[in-house]
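Q: Could you fold this chain for me?
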Amino acid sequence: MISGETRLVGLLGDPVSGSLSPPMQNAAFAARGLDWTYVPLAVPAERLEDALRGLFALGFAGANVTTPHKLAVATLLGAGTPSVNTLVVRDGRLHGSSTDSAILADLQFDRAAIIGDGGAAIAFAESLPQAARFSRRGNWPPDVRDADVVVNATSERDEILVELRAGQTLVDLPYPRTATARAAQAAGARVLDGFDVLVAQGAAAFRLWTGLPAPVDVMRAAIRCRTADYA
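A: Sure. Below is the predicted structure, expressed as structure tokens.
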């Protein structure tokens, strides 16, 4: 139940019905004893600017931004980053940043490659300016033989985009696991799947909103128990 004291956080995207962020973040708020609620907000592109203003009007503490709005929100806010996935309402302003690449903090590597050219790919590219970039609208097919870490930031699920080997790490953004991720795991590569990526970026966003460390184990359990829904 939402009370008059409940702090609201939303998810702006189109569609948002399949997102695991609401159960993950609501489990995190409960674990920290916070009267906060995370709600999905389906927003078509033509209503995006209205939705951003609505966050103020409705007293939201912040929001996440997902497909297809990450680049547009960055432009509307004049953010210092080309892609925004996290919004914080502070000092009467809406502050935008990206936690998409938070999972990289736990990895050690020298050479990276990024596949894709959407908002998440751009966020990873900002964190990895020296990474090789591949997309169907540019440099294709991907050649990742020299990469230690390969980021699959596409929405492709059924086609094997690259073949990895033992000693390489795949950061696979879609969930459930893609054909690329399954092939990489079978070849002995390390795979961090879309659930791992979601927890990492969600934990970083949680801290931006609340100022508290995120209960990562609770967040991971909240989405892993729903894995069967995405098989």
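A (continued): Helices lie at 21-31, 48-57, 70-77, 119-127, 179-186, 194-210, 216-224.
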